[in-house]
Amino acid sequence: MAEKKYxxxxxxxxxxxxxxxxxxxxxxxxxxxxxxxxxFPQAGWVEHDAMEIWENTKTVIxxxxxxxxxxxxxxxxxxxxxxxxxTLVWNKETGKPYYHALVWQDxxxxxxxxxxxxxxxxxxxxxxxxxxxxxxxxxxxxxxxMEQVPExxxxxxRGNALFGTMDTWVVWWLTGGPKGGSHxxxxxxxxxxxxxxxxxxxxxxxxxxxxxxxxxxxxxxxPSSDPGFYGYTLEDGPLGWKIPVAGIxxxxxxxxxxxTCYTPGEAKSTYGTGGFLLLHTDTKAVQSKHGLLTxxxxxxxxxxxxxxxxxxIAVAGSLVQWFRDNLQMISTAAEINALAEQVxxxxxxxxxxxxxxxxxxxxxSSARGIIAGLTxxxxxxxxxxxxxxxxxxQVAELIESMEKDSGVKLAELKVxxxxxxxxxxxxxxxxxxxxxxxxxxxTETTALGSAYAAGLAVGFWTSLxxxxxxxxxxxxxxxxxxxxxxxxxxxxxxxxxxxxLEWID
Length: 505
Fold this sequence. Notes:
Distance between the termini: 65 Å
Number of strands: 23
Number of helices: 16
Largest sheet: 7 strands, mixed
């Protein structure tokens, strides 16, 4: 039998799907990536073609193996990480979706949210789910599909429709699809649906009744690292070998796990399409009073679940894409750094990217984006700098809320995601926070976290201490900004944010 040298991770993200093979040291041995199309049928609507995503998943797996010569029998297990709240309903006999996947950024459920918020109380389910009522989460998206797609609603009543976030969709196909594929999710993804009780880790009958969702269409909730496995890949599937699928983590929890934040009080911030800050709060579900989410951080086998406080930003890296594609100020995303470095500051302007409302800590779906403080002095370079700074300001507000909720003053911040390649952004983040910012040697921490979960389940790694030893500092940024300037800049940002609120009547 071939020696098990690698663990595979399928990273199904908002804009692309990747397959990455990690060795025992947590280093990348091979990878392949494909983007998928973004659909915007009308303002505020964001959709994906789930069949395209599955086809891309098969392709990235095959290409990774083909270009490296790594044999599938050398892979110990497979982990999945995914864009979280993105919602899909499909036919369990054919595998055909009844509608495009509704992406986490999609705001079409705003009327449903208003109806559910009895008397305007958007925290009415927070004690049970850990979440405020918001368009972000999966439950209201399923409700919309049930109301607007009669074929899906009828199939659900007959027990012929399945719901899943993208982890569930990928695992179902990997393990057989219509021919007996495993219909499962993990506690981290389930905690983002508004349908799971955050304390019992089970689907909540009252929430299902309120949302009008039949229990039979929901996947089984399993641990994030599961020694019992979710199933095996098919020998006639893209891997061409029978390999245990043993780890699932929603993308932000996967980054927490990959950053080895295994001690209460440790935090990480991911800078991707959106921005996400998670703080480990141990085995207690801490309810936020300052606009954050209570979420499951991870669950290993039969050990107690670990919880986290999360701050979610809807628009981070996607603001750079907007600057490139809509304004056509740059031709590639990487160009923004050189352009922003041409100026010493933002020239007095702020860009608040409330394109589809604001997530934490405001949870305001009627906000819309603005550029504030424009004068004749402002150039394209100032705009570029303001685009990068917008993410740092949003993270700073999340950390303010997190410190108020937890009573813990952050000593350092571990960072990951595509935007951490920007030296300017990372230095500004350290400055505006007045804390040390640390980028690890391996920045693909989302995929790494799901690989760690899958590897732990099969004994490829034996303990969390094994994983901690893999983590190495890539670069550190120390704060250099004077307190007076920091205070002035944050005051300006908060003033700009206030101008965006309640823009939509």
